[in-house]
Amino acid sequence: MTKVVITGRGVVCPLGVSVPEMLAGLANNAVAVEPAPWVSSDRRYFAWWAVVKGFDPNAWMDAKIVSGTDPRRPPP
Questions:
Q1: Whole-angstrom distance, CA of residue 27 vs CA of residue 24
Q2: Using CA atoms, how far apart are residues 47 and 50, in angstroms rounded to an integer?
Q3: Which residues of the chain have pLDDT under 50?
Q4: What pLDDT does residue 44 have?
Q5: What is the pLDDT of residue 23?
Q6: Cα 13 from Cα 24, distance rounded (Å)
Q7: Residue 13: what are its φ and ψ, rounded to 5°?
Q8: pTM to 2 decimals?
């Protein structure tokens, strides 16, 4: 059997950007999925998204990658 050592934990998800935030969201039955802002006003078409609020991707990724993965940011 292979031994495993856990040296830390972390999370980045729509329920929070830390383990305590995510666990609190789970414990409180929080729902992180919401209607996408581009949904038509006539409600015939639906789109949903789960935004990771409070996360600064610029601290972890190159600006070009960030602009290509965030639908709210225009390319540089």
A1: 5
A2: 11
A3: 74-75
A4: 73
A5: 96
A6: 13
A7: -150, 170
A8: 0.63
